[in-house]
Structures are given as structure tokens and as C-alpha cells.
Amino acid sequence: MSTVPQDNIRNFSIVAHIDHGKSTLADRLIQATGGLTDREMKEQVLDSMDIERERGITIKAQTVRLDYKAKDGKTYILNLMDTPGHVDFAYEVSRSLAACEGALLVVDASQGVEAQTLANVYQAIDNDLEIVPILNKIDLPAAEPDRIKAQIEEVIGIDASDAVLISAKTGIGIPDVLEAVVTRLPPPKGDPDAPLKALLVDSWYDAYLGVIVLVRIIDGRLKKGARIRMMRADAVYEVERVGYFTPKLVPVDDLGPGEIGFFTGSIKEVADTRVGDTITDDKKPTAEPLPGFRPAQPVVFCGLFPADAAQFEELRAAMGRLRLNDASFSFEMESSAALGFGFRCGFLGLLHLEIIQERLEREFNLDLIATAPSVIYKITLTDGSEVELHNPADMPDVMKIREISEPWIRATILTPDEYLGAILKLCQERRGIQSDLSYVGSRAMVTYDLPLNEVVFDFYDRLKSISKGYASFDYHLTDHKPGDLVKLQILVNAEPVDALSMLVHRTQAERRGRAMCEKLKDLIPQHLFVIPIQAAIGGKIIARETVRAMRKDVTAKCYGGDITRKRKLLDKQKEGKRKMRQFGKVDIPQEAFIAALKMDD
Ligand SMILES: Nc1nc2c(ncn2[C@@H]2O[C@H](COP(=O)(O)OP(=O)(O)OP(=O)(O)O)[C@@H](O)[C@H]2O)c(=O)[nH]1
Fold first, then answer.
1. What is the distance between the alpha carbons of residues 94 and 296, in angstroms, rounded to a whole number?
2. By C-alpha distance, which of 293, 282, 295 is closest to 225?
3. What is the pTM of this model?
4. Which end of the chain is less packed: N or C, by CB atoms within 10 Å?
């Protein structure tokens, strides 16, 4: 039996704005405590998936257990929970924080407090965590630790006088971080003699071990061979393996109060486990379950279709595989007149959508067509009933609609003052309603209420480009509000293309319609005939462009006899063909579907 005194345990997360150095710090802590030898220490151990590594973002919360011999001569067990930094995955931050007593708040000393610093630290405060401010990147000449300390005190309202100054990159200050964890964060306080009570923090599928469940023990002990009950799911399992990660998997016989580790049992699917559920002893259950979490709800939907219809079954299997480890990704079969069979998929946000699409294409070698992303609309019909609309193609007859409501968000944007004007203009154009404007040092902090549908396409990209990357952004959903929404249809060669239709606000319809037609005109290659491209609301055409006809022989352009040039042109044409879909008589290239939706304003 492992008997770890709770006084020697510290459970903590690292919270930060994206790119402020959370993963680099986590790796340093693992390295400094010898969790991995130098040879095993690959860059950014905690970001395990390839795509995460390439994009430099952390998606799945992971936990490692570190042994640390402190200056007081005692050995401590430090459980470090990594948390994702992007708004799409905010719910994963909240569930990791619920399993900890403390948080390290990492702020880039050259940049200062950003939108997600605030969002994440407020979550930590809401969870009653003890917070240790850490100023990272002090190796940079632009670092201004004193100014940033003052900013943390002013904006967040926590004491930053003894913030730890570090460079996660060079290693400066790492021993101070470890000491701060031990001396400044409280130990867990569970009752070892009470019935088992554990929080289900996360679960994922492993090819060798099956479903692995990550738990934080609150009271009692989780033992190998025990029969446990998942209280909300109302399911009983026998515990087969118990252990923890260093990040290597280390089996033990049991876990006691305050410990974070995993178990496996005969659990078939990740879907059988509910994050936030309470795990207890089947025979001797705890009286009160833990409060639990709200499940993560998909907020953005789009259709994913195989570019080659023969890949439909492969796509279904690949999606099933991805869902094993990502319960927040949902899909159901859909058929479209233009695209054939595919799936309607739900995501936590646009980044989540892009990551899933990329993984399907890369890991499973599929060629996909994604339709316009859509939010969830609530439609009240004239008979008083209410329906949820995930797909503009399913919109009921307008005569039967009494009211359409759309989801709204509350967005917080932090920006250097010089970009404020352009940002306010952008929010205004996207139907935003300003609710607050204040200053954080020399930077403006503005709060806007915005319709989610105006944000999903390209708001973040636009914000980044008009602020040269300096503005930061965070949001959460607030409620549904009625809006004057209409269905914008795109007709190519007089045929409606469902995959390009979307709901838009009436005031935006013309601008969007025109922009879509202009984009498509450039994206659709010339054919042997003239192709009209039209945008319409109901039967009314609001914009029109034309793709002119071309001459048949593409090589005719290459006057003279340069054979390599001819070959190149033909190859290019062939490549283009592979990625096209036929709509009636017209070939539309795959990238048109997403590209057409990105507005340049
Ligand atoms: N100069 C300097 N660069 C650093 C330091 N710490 C991290 N970086 C760099 O900052 C960038 C972001 O670091 P990450 O650790 O990936 O940031 P993160 O906060 O984990 O980002 P997400 O995982 O995407 O949330 C990387 O290019 C790091 O090499 C530091 O102390 N000094």
C-alpha cells in the first residue's frame, strides 16, 4: 500500500494566455525533478499529439506526478495538470482546476496580462485555488517584470509582490517555482477512513489498456480489484489497474486521498465515462456525490463529406476512432443533394473543427469537403413549437416560422490603444453591442456582446490581422436572442448549392452575398460555357457574378513548343480535377467551400 501523507502532496495546474510559456514551464518542471532522463525528454512532452506539437497548442489536459526533494529535506509529490490555452477548450481548463488546490499563473513578462490570462485566472479564483504569479521570459530584453507585477495587481487584484521571475526557456528560476509550489500552495485535505469518493477528471482510449480513467481521490482509497460505482452514469466496474504517470505509466496497488492517478476496468467506451462524475465504492458508497460539471456542448456545426464518395465508410470509421478520445466531437449521417453522403459534425469552436478536419485528412488519408460552419439556431414555429437548427439546409418553410433566435457571446478583447478604433469598427460591423471599455496600463480592454454567427467564420483572423497580432480575445456563450435572420442561398449555374447556404442577418445579407459571389468567381475555374453565380434570399437575387467561358485547349496558351511548360499546365489541371466536386455541370474546387466564407471586409 502506498502511504503518501497528504501534507506531502501538492496538486496544481498552470494557467496562462496562449504562448506565454505554459508547456515550456511544464517540461522544465518534469526535467528538473527527473521525471524523464534527458534522452527521453523530447521537446514539449505534455503536448502529445503531432498536430498539437506543430501548432504549438495544448489540447488535452494531461497530468504528471513528480517527486521533488524540497529544501526542507522532505520529498513531495507534485501532481501537475496541464491545461489547454485556447478558448475552444475552456471547459477542459475548468475541470482540471476542480482537481487542484493551487494554480501557477504564468504571464509573459514582455507582454503582460492578456484576455485568456484573465479568463483562466478568474476560473482558478472561482475554484478557490491558491494562486502563485509567475513572470516568464525574463531573458527577453523587452521583459518588464515590475510593470507587469503592478499590472497583475491592478487588473486581477491579487498580490504579485513575490511573483516568481523565471525563464522557462533558459531554466532561470525553475528551482524557485518548485519551492513556491511546496511552500505556498496548500496540501489536499481528504479523509482516508471515509468511503471512497473520487472525481472523474478525464478519460481516453488506449490501444493496449482500453479506456483509461483519470481520477482525483477526495476521500478513501481506490484499490486494485475493488468494485467501484460511477454515481451519475450508474455503472459498476471492477478496477483492474491503478497507477499514475511520470509521464511514464507507473502501476501501484492503490491511490489515497489527495492523489491523482488512473485506473482501468472493463469499460468499453470513453462514452461510458462522464467527466465530473463521482466514483465511489459499490458496497460502501459515499453519501454525497460531487457537484459535477456541465458537459461540453458543441457550438459550431458543419458538414464533412468525402471528396471521393467511395471513401464514405472509411470516413465513418475514422470519425468513430477520433470520437473515442474526444467526447466533445459529435457526428451523425447527413445527405446532401450536391455532396452525396457525409456527416453533420458538432465542434467546440472553429479551431476544434480545423483540428478534427486536419486529423481526418492527415492521419486517415481522407480528402474532405467541409460545408459552411453554422451555429445552433432556435426556431419558433407558427404552431408554437420550437426546433433547433444545426444545418441551414434544413430550414423550415419561412411561412411556418414565427421567430428565429441565435446564440450570443460576451467577448473580452485586450489591445494596444492604437488598434482600438479599428477593432471597435470590426465589432460594430459584426452587430456587436459594446458593454464596457477600460484601460489596463496602456492597453484598452473592451467588452462586447456579439452574435456567435458573426464570430465563427473569421472574426479571430480579422482581429489578429488588424491588430498585427497584438490583440487578444476570449469569449463565453451567454444566451439566444431573436434576430432578423434570413437564409442566403448560393446558386451556381442556376442550381442552389446547399453546402454553401447559410443563415445571415438581413442587414448583412447583401454584403455577404456579394462577397461570396466575388470569391467564388475567382475560385471556380473557367468551363466551356458561361457560369452565372448568384446569391439569393427566398426567390430574390441579391448579387451576381459570371465565370466566363474558356477555349478548350489549355495548352493553346503556351505559344511555341515549350514541352515542360505544357506538361506542367496539364499536371496542374489534373491535380485540380482530383479535388473538384461536380455540381450539375460545374466543377467546384474543394477549397472554395471554406475560402468563400472568409470575408475580407
Ligand atoms: N525567450 C523566451 N521564450 C520562451 C520562454 N518560455 C517559452 N518561450 C517560447 O514561447 C513560445 C510559447 O511557449 P509554449 O510553452 O508553447 O506556450 P504555451 O503557453 O504552452 O502555449 P499553449 O500550449 O499553446 O497554450 C515558444 O516558442 C517557447 O519557446 C522564455 O522563458 N523565454
1. 11
2. 282
3. 0.71
4. N
